[in-house]
Amino acid sequence: MARIIVVTSGKGGVGKTTTSAAIAMGLAKKGHKTAVIDFDVGLRNLDLIMGCERRVIYDFINVINGEASLNQALIRDKNCNQLYILPASQTRDKDALSQEGVGKVLEELAKDFQYIICDSPAGIEKGAQLAMYYADDAFVVTNPEVSSVRDSDRMLGILSSKSRRAETNQEPIKEYLLLTRYSPERVKLKEMLSVDDVQEILSLHLLGVIPESKSVLNASNSGLPVILDEKSDAGQAYMDVVARYLGEECPHRFIDEKKGLLGKLFGGR
Amino acid sequence: MSTDPRQLQGAPALEIKTSTFSVPTLLLASNNLEAIGQQLLQTVEKAPDFFTHSPVVLDVQALNNRRLPIDLKKLCRLVRDVGMFPIGIRGGNEEQNALALKLAIPNYSTHHPVAAELAKPKAAPPQAAPAPSPAVKLLTLPVRSGQRIYAEGDLIVLAPVSAGAEVIAEGNIHIYSTLRGRALAGVPNNTDARIFCSDLQAELISIAGNYQVSSNFSAPKGKPVQIYLQEQSLIIKDI
């Protein structure tokens, strides 16, 4: 039985697609058969980030409408044969999605896959709601910045009331906080919200902190999820996140400032 | 006596309809038959055309309230002697009612039949009237931005109330955590309602419609406070 994870935020541009690609690749590399679905109908980017934009023939909407089978639409990733991508349609819009249709596709995927990652669009409208409706876990991606925090809070409210688990009185969706684009230097200067500040407002379990990193842009340019860039801080942070999610004990490495050489030589905190 | 079936199947012999007649009622205040007799005579003499051959209803409620017994048979005799026809008894006890029926005098209830129906439900509500005071609503999970909680009685929140969230109660509001959103107590006009908060960082507070926005009040952060209404002003006080 597959575990359905929704990567959501409310606010746009915080790193949902980057995270979806990285987490999906991370889980697949650990041997779990994983599918990642782009729910942003009409504004698809997951295929770009995953580097498979030239291999899209059929998409999510085609499968919902019965115009193509799931096998025809799923794209197997070149770098990991356990990872499959289901792209969104670029020509249609969110109205083409239906709760029933989404449910059927997820049900079919759940037969073969162990993890299904739903890359949610921004906002709280139909696309975002359908992306999280069937979820078991939710990664709430937040930037340490006031509007992102408030929008994440709003999304949390919706997760606890409009999901299938909420409507059928089952155990609620497990919510995880993923703090992205974190800059310890700016936090020290009191320009940016700290992890504690965000935790205080959101009261959420912290899954991971992804530092602001140039490697993210490089990764999307090259069509490779940033987790494959093992030397980068962001890549390593995502590897920690996957490990933590799977139950391993993993200290948070990117919350404190990086120590320069002098700092390391002369000690201090 | 014809019992010819063909005749019975034809047009009905009579029709029953309710009609209203005004009938004078003799409200008896004393069981002194001599006094009653005398007063009856005097009454008829004053308006003989009205009272002679007039149907009357005998009301003995007052007598029964004072537990004064009365000889119904003799009373009826007195009434008939002055030319009135007793056509009913009202406010009689069981014994009197039974005796009246024997005298071919129907019984009437103390209330108008419709009023009698209305009287019955009135007996029930007084018992239901101490309406169950609305239950207290208890929230243990954070109230997220955009959520709106409404409580008919008191509201107790054990988790933070986020900015952009609203908690509304007809009674008091207790927030044993940080309030960053809006709290409206005592809606719509319960001026005795209070707001209790462990950490007041609210966007807006209101009691019975009297509100203040955050820029206008200075609350010590992190300290438990209570907010109440005093002559249409909100007072914020340390607990």
Find the CATH topology of the largest domain in chain B. Answer: Pectate Lyase C-like
What is the count of structural domains of chain B?
2
What structural class do helix, strand and pairing data of chain A support? alpha/beta
Rg of chain B, Cα atoms, Å:
36 Å
Can you describe what's shown?
- The complex is a heterodimer of chains A (269) and B (239).
- Chain A is α/β, with parallel strands linked by helices and 269 residues long.
- Chain A has helices spanning 16-29, 46-50, 60-64, 70-73, 99-112, 126-133, 146-162, 164-167, 184-188, 195-202, 215-222, 233-245, 261-265; strands at residues 3-8, 34-38, 75-76, 83-86, 115-119, 137-142, 174-182, 205-211.
- Chain A has an 8-stranded mixed sheet, with helices on both faces.
- In chain A, β3 and β4 form a beta hairpin.
- In chain A, α1 (16-29) packs across α12 (233-245).
- Chain B has 239 residues and is of the alpha/beta class.
- Chain B folds into 2 domains: 25-116, ACT domain (Alpha-Beta Plaits, 2-Layer Sandwich), CATH 3.30.70; 137-238, Pectate Lyase C-like (3 Solenoid), CATH 2.160.20.
- Helix content of chain B is 26%, strand content 28%.
- Chain B has helices at residues 5-8, 33-46, 48-51, 61-65, 72-81, 94-102, 113-128; strands at 25-27, 55-59, 85-90, 107-108, 137-139, 148-151, 155-157, 166-169, 173-179, 182-185, 195-200, 204-207, 210-213, 225-230, 233-238.
- Chain B has a 6-stranded mixed sheet, with no helix packed on it. Chain B has a 5-stranded mixed sheet with strand order 6-8-10-12-13, with no helix packed on it.
- In chain B, a hairpin with a 2-residue loop joins β14 (225-230) and β15.
- The longest helix of chain B has 16 residues, at 113-128.
- The relative contact order of chain B is 0.07.
- Classes of the chains: A alpha/beta (269), B alpha/beta (239).
